[in-house]
What we know:
This protein is mostly beta strands.
Amino acid sequence: xxxxxxxxxxxxxxxxxxxxxxxxxxxxxxxxxxxxxxxxxxxxxxxxxxxxxxxxxxxxxxxxxxxxxxxxxxxxxxxxxxxxxxxxxxxxxxxxxxxxxxxxxxxxxxxxxxxxxxxxxxxxxxxxxxxxxxxxxxxxxxxxxxxxxxxxxxxxxxxxxxxxxxxxxxxxxxxxxxxxxxxxxxxxxxxxxxxxxxxxxxxxx
Length: 205
């Protein structure tokens, strides 16, 4: 049934199709939705002390990967990563992959030093798109699943925190081989199951 004044499936206004808008796909221009949560986290952050919410983990050079569910369109600029109990001076960087494992955004490849403040979130600004071009924001389209990867450059014990065994049942977590700090794979095989002590604790906004 056609309703007067309502765009119908397949119809187009300017360069935006109605079906693309509903799916959150191929939408042109800003699509940030006002309201909702200020920050989207991969696990609930609540009354549990940050010092005991995860496992202190050595940041050996690989990609520590977790999924994050984005319920609605969000334009983001920052990824927060929970530092470990002995956060020192190692550097980390972050990358965002889409549901198919394609690199879509990252922080600066030189990395950012842990600030030495144990069990706190270190925030990294986005700096690049998936092709390596300068880009300080990334448009997430929801509802959709994305993957956040963290890479460290050191061997410091307790540099970052990862999700403990069976702490959360609805998170995908794993690791991907990446042997050179600052070099990000253009594509990865995203984790589809949970592996303990592999998924970083992160948020985006």
